[in-house]
Amino acid sequence: MRTQVGIIGAGPAGLMLSHLLARYDIDSVVLEARSREYVEARVRAGVLEQGTVDLLDETGVGKRMHDEGLVHEGIELRFDRASHRIPFPELTGGRSIMLYGQQEVVKDLIAARLAAGGDVRFDVSDVRIDKFDSAEPVLSFQEGHSSNRVELHCDFVAGCDGFHGVSRESIPRSEFTEYHREYPFGWLGILAAVAPSADEVTYTYTDRGFALMSLRSPQISRLYLQVDPDDDIANWPDRRIWDELHTRLAIDSEWSLTEGPVLEKGITAMRSFVLEPLRYGRLFLAGDAAHIVPPTGAKGMNLAISDVAVLADAVAHWYDTGSSTGLDDYSTTALRRVWRAQHFSWWMTSMLHRFPDDDPYQRQLQLSQLHYTVASQAASASLAENYVGLLRG
Ligand code: FAS
Ligand code: PHB
Q: What is the pLDDT of residues 241-275, one digit of tens each?
């Protein structure tokens, strides 16, 4: 079997890459370990940067996002029992964000690929990458319950298989540098069938820890609590979750949190991670396979999309001109935005969470940073331009 680009992973990175390559008439095959139902149901990110919204529109997959997504023109920061709004358009020359679940983006991309005759294979197993340091890399895998191995010969391999994928494990350790930071807390996230209690995404800093109010639709709320990283969701019955959310989100002005049936809950670890470089011969890494950010900056999915936007153009340039300049520059170009998002995500996380080993001085610094961020136009603009996403290029 042969294709031009073999893609491992049908998350936002792999699917968007396949979609972008198809617009250049470049063939690809996407290999996904999970079922279509699983990847389309996996609840993760919720915030699309302006650049992601624009790319979905430019490439013809933005209709349902505009029909069902929610444009948001700001976020709120809560501390000292008061809420402060950061307005985006005024501070970023008119840009905003879109609230639209990652699983909806995945559904739209899968539908677009299959409608265009794209080759997306679900339920594959034991994907292996060989000869990626040659001009003829080979992927091999098993399909469904078959024990036969299928070989996929390609010109390029894109490792879009997330943090626990096979791509990064296939690279000799001597070839790469890892940067990482573990955080001493996790996020407990719930999806609740109740109208959001806040109009906009609201981040809260309290002595008891961080909390976040977000949403997926006028009927579905998404909320998070900072918890111990090793905590077990079994320790968090719905009653305890709502009680803690009420406590952390409380403000002195007239406002209340509305509860509703919890549809889903889980605890996610928090880490920062970057692998450098992003290229190994004909193997290119993109998205969570190459980097992870704590979700406080709402960057994870957006970074995955921006990586593959760069990679698709570079691959197309090679096929069109034979020049490898785009491919040679891919890692440097992508990492520039990755490190900006790393810093912003680390900064938001450090400002808004209680650290187990912190002290009163540390907490005063956090409160000073929060007060300054909402009081200074320059500081608010800095947060806003990072949040809506830096302009491409
Ligand atoms: P993904 O992990 O989405 O996709 C990788 C795909 O590869 C998966 O479908 C996987 O099944 C497949 N795969 C893995 N190994 C394979 C193999 N060996 N063979 C074949 N396929 C393989 N980001 C935010 O911005 N906001 C959030 O609130 C947020 N919450 C998150 C919560 C959780 C629990 C997690 C894990 C991540 C969260 N993220 C969030 C980050 C997340 O959105 C990622 O940044 C985004 O999914 C990255 O997309 P991909 O790089 O495509 O990786
Ligand atoms: C979400 O809506 O899931 C969300 C919003 C903002 C974040 C993280 C997650 O920083």
A: 999 999 999 999 999 999 999 999 999 999 999 99
- Give me the domain span that covers residue 167: 5-72+97-179+271-348
Computed on alpha carbons and rounded to an integer, the radius of gyration of the chain in Å comes to 21
- pLDDT tens per residue across span 116-133: 999 999 999 999 999 999
Into how many domains does the chain fold?
Answer: 1
Is 366 part of any domain?
no
Q: By mean pLDDT, which of 11-15, 102-106, 168-172 is the weakest? A: 168-172
Domain contains 147: yes
Ligand 2 touching residue 386 (CB < 6 A): no
> Model confidence over 273-297: pLDDT tens digits?
999 999 999 999 999 999 999 999 9
Q: Is residue 17 part of a domain?
A: yes
Q: Is 72 a catalytic residue?
A: yes
Please report which ligand is nearest the Cα atom of 46. Answer: 2
Reply yes or no on whether the pLDDT at 172 is more than 60.
Answer: yes
Strand partners, 83: 78
Q: Under a CB-based contact definition with an 8 Å cutoff, are residues 185 and 358 in contact?
A: no
With a 6 Å cutoff on the Cβ, whether 214 touches ligand 2 is: yes
- CATH number, domain containing residue 289: 3.50.50.60
- For residue 335, being part of any structural domain is answered with yes
Residue nearest to atom 15 of ligand 1 (CA): 165
